[in-house]
Inverse folding.
């Protein structure tokens, strides 16, 4: 049911990477490059990458280069509840952060990197759209390195929910949760950390106390501070076209990439790579 690549099995430091952002987070072809660059960054940070996805009736932990290339826009988006069906139905299943966490746990991997985790969508409770990433994070002993939660969401509400769920929100050299493209203006983190070693020590202590997941926010090196009007326009467009549920995030991201003339695309690509590198450093320290 689960195939773990030999290199991943033998490694002492592993970082799990998701495939939804490869398949649905970028224009055709670009996502694959982002996935490959994330893997290179994990290696540069001293760890072994384990990109996770569902393929040909197996959950694969550590996709090969050729396998990763099959994760295009035709892949099914697979959250935690979708894993079993994707497996049995033999589809190409691109795992979200939540889906990746569920698999990482079974495979014994404690560190995950992504761009931004899902959360409470703006307008809650109409519709009552809350990403399954949050519930899965709350119950999985793993640390997720991200640029916070995607700013197309209601970030303050998401931060409140993370607190209610008992998820520590660590800020890497920041006192506030990064806003994905933007660095400043987010809600406060529950603890600031200065080094990868400190993050690893806190994660280990949290798990000894039987805690679940932790979110670590790292601000992008080159933040974009002027995308909020574009995000609002993208959300209006999604609403006007009746885009709902799982389709909202990919729709909004591609709208932003197009309307910003590629600026959000470059920012998103770079922050994913930076997060992968930091996750590797934490995994090595952990
Ligand atoms: N980070 C990115 N781009 C993405 C995602 C994260 O830079 O596309 C994906 C992740 O897979 C995350 C998902 O789990 O978006 C959240 O989707 P939803 O809001 O439908 O739960
Ligand atoms: Mn959703």
């Amino acid at each position: 049911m689960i195939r773990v690549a030999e290199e991943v099995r033998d490694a002492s430091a592993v970082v799990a990477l998701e495939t939804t952002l490869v398949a649905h987070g970028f224009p055709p072809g670009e996502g694959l490059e982002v996935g490959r660059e994330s893997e290179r960054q994990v290696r540069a940070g001293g760890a072994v990458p384990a990109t996770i996805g569902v393929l040909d009736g197996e959950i694969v932990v550590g996709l090969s280069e050729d396998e990763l290339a099959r994760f295009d826009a035709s892949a099914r988006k697979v959250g935690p509840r979708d894993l079993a069906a994707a497996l049995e139905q033999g589809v190409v299943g691109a795992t979200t952060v939540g889906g990746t966490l569920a698999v990482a746990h079974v495979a014994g991997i404690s560190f995950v990197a992504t761009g931004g985790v899902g959360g409470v969508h703006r307008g809650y409770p109409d519709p009552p759209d809350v990403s399954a990433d949050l519930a899965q994070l709350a119950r999985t002993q793993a640390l997720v390195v991200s640029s916070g939660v995607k700013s197309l969401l209601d970030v303050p509400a998401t931060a409140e929910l993370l607190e209610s769920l008992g998820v520590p929100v660590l800020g890497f050299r920041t006192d506030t949760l990064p806003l994905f493209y933007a660095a400043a203006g987010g809600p406060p983190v529950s603890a600031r950390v200065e080094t990868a070693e400190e993050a690893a020590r806190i994660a280990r202590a949290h798990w000894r106390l039987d805690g679940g997941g932790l979110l670590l926010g790292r601000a992008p090196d080159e933040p974009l501070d002027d995308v909020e009007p574009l995000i609002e326009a993208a959300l209006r467009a999604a609403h006007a076209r009746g885009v709902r549920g799982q389709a909202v995030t990919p729709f909004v991201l591609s709208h932003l990439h197009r309307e910003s003339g590629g600026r959000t695309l470059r920012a998103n690509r770079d922050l994913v790579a930076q997060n992968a590198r930091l996750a590797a450093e934490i995994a090595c320290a952990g």
Observations:
- The first strand starts at residue 2 and ends at 4.
- The mean pLDDT is 97.
- The radius of gyration is 17 Å.
